[in-house]
Amino acid sequence: MNKIKIVLWSFGILMIIFLGFFFYQMTQSQNINSMMTILMLILGLILGGVIAFLASKKMTSEPNVITESSHTIAESMRKVFKVVAAEGHFNEIYNYEETTKLLKFIPSTKKALVIIQAKVLIGYDFEKFQWEVDEQNRKVKLLNFPAPEILSTETDYKYYNIEEQFFNLFSKDDLAKIQQNGKQQVIEAAKKSHLPEVAAEQMQMLLTELLSGKNFMLENSSKIMESKNQISYHPLNSDERNGTR
């Protein structure tokens, strides 16, 4: 490849010398035909130089080398019967500030402003339902109705106004702590929002319509609304259970 470059550069230098010579001849000649001949030669040399340059670029350019690998391991699988009844979107502004003292008297502070955009899914685990069926009177009585659960949270973190000092820098553990604390704030906000009430209303309507389609009546439906204030957090996947998502 280096030899090809040397040949192309040598060819370019020779063309420049050749052009200089013919420019000199053109200034000394009065013959129109000879001037036209020289002009055509110059254009041909220029065109040849452009072609040589493009060929050199193509020869020297190397394709990008991309290497990818992926390994997926399924840890566990089990059947569940969980139904999402409400979905909420939240924007949480989380301020983090930590001050340490260097040599026990020189304060050093680091700060971060994080905006968390989250999607929260609330639903019910049908495995926890307890009911009693009265076939004769075509009634279904709720004996125990579980509280709604936060089944999933999808979060996106955007960092703004990060301030740190030389002796007090952000570490990976600090960032993980910020994300975990910020996500917990979103979960608490979801619990205090109207999402549990919306989920309870959706579940009450769903059960009523399903039973009415079978000519059954739902008793004790008030238990559904009573349980909305006891919302809990049970993520669907192991990443959220470990607090790493």
Automatic annotation (TrEMBL):
Origin superkingdom: Bacteria
Pfam families with a match to the protein in the record: DUF4230
Keywords: Membrane, Transmembrane, Transmembrane helix
Transmembrane spans: 6-24, 36-55
Protein name per Swiss-Prot or TrEMBL: DUF4230 domain-containing protein
Phylogenetic classification of the source organism: Bacteria, Pseudomonadati, Bacteroidota, Flavobacteriia, Flavobacteriales
